[in-house]
Amino acid sequence: MSPLSLSVLVALAASPNPAPESTDEGAATSATTTTTATASGEKDHVDPGDPRTRFLESAPFDLVGGGSRKGDWAVEASAGFPWQRVRGQLGVGRGLTPLLELDSVLARRFRPAAGLGLRWVDRPHVRLTGEVLLGWDWQRTPELRRRGPNGELRLRLAFPVRRVAPYLVAATRHTLLMDRTTVATASGDDVSWSARHSWILWGQLGLVVAITEHVGLDVGIDLPWVEPPSISIPGAHVGVIVGGWGR
Amino acid sequence: MKGFSVVWVAVVVAGTGACVNEDVHLFEVELAGRIATEDPSLDGVGTVHLELHHGYVGEGELRRPLGLIESWALGPEVRDFEDVVLVSTDGGAEGLVMYGWLDLDGDGVLCNVGAADEEPAGVVVLSDVPAHDISFELELSAPCRGVEPLFP
């Protein structure tokens, strides 16, 4: 892992209270949006008297913006080329959201991962979340084996406005790949191990549409950069997001 | 918490070990040989170039003869050779072949256009394979021949 990635990881883990509890942020971003504190101490940007704020805490916006309120959950299943993904998250309060993900590249490579998201900026129309994920790369093709522990640092930035939220994702994904060399000598086998680092830079640009507070559609383009500086082909995805029932 | 960390590290180490990516198998061979020329007047003349090849490489439809492992250029007038080589045993690699030619004009090219002399070449199949100690005698007697036409 690079020093930059490590420093971001440490900063994310050490941040005591990422979401500023300002009382005038609604006025700063929208004259008509109010922000109130919930029983758990987290903000609620939804104003029952203002229909334009109805979807600000919806499950679709929670998922693409990263982070859910305490007890809120969201799940997305997305299909695309060449990446597919299933992701689930559950808010536990204090801006923290544990999450589970399963990435697939045309069912040839999989990356199951568990992670933790932390809302850094929590305003009615701007959300910035940092996520740390630990997982495992598992490529099925025997001629190009790629299996090893994987770590990812990710930033999610979303701009919820009424029913839609454009969003941006930037991530750096690192995998440790172990190789084995066996030298047969006259005195026996000499086995040595070596490690390689595989790096994927990840970008995503998309738009989520909240159909209801509990259901949304996600469309976006995927911009992976696998093993820079080699060139990678961009992809696209369409996803369905559900969640938030039973809060 | 400490117990959790130990378990996590153990899982990563064990899992990493179980998931080998490139698994390379090499066979150590100590080669010792003498190179001779058919023409006695060429003894001690020029530079001998040696190439160690697999007899066959590849699998299935990609299987083919000869795959270069390593090459050497012996010093002027040197006719004895000794070295340790790591030979891959992966990918259908099989057998060892030593090819050599005598560079009489010092241009590094076998029988270059306009060369005055026909440079002799030869090949020997190392029949002791697989063995860690292999000795050979290579006679350079075929003028201007590459390794492919000489390979039996």
Describe this protein's structure.
The complex is a heterodimer of chains A (247) and B (152). Chain A has helices spanning 3-14, 25-29, 59-65; strands spanning 36-37, 43-44, 73-81, 83-90, 96-105, 109-123, 126-139, 146-158, 164-185, 188-210, 215-226, 235-243. Chain A has 247 residues and is mainly beta. Chain A has two domains: 3-39; 59-243, Lipocalin (Beta Barrel). In chain A, strand 3 and strand 4 form a beta hairpin. Chain B contains two helices and eight strands, in the order H-E-E-E-E-E-E-E-E-H. In chain B, the strands form two sheets. Chain B has a five-stranded antiparallel β-sheet. A three-stranded mixed β-sheet of chain B has the order 4-1-7, with no helix packed on it. Chain B is elongated, with a radius of gyration of 22 Å. The mean pLDDT of chain B is 87. Classes of the chains: A mainly beta (247), B mainly beta (152). At the A-B interface, strand 8 and strand 9 of A face helix 1 and strand 1 of B. Strand 9 of chain A pairs parallel with strand 1 (23-37) of chain B, so a sheet runs across the interface.
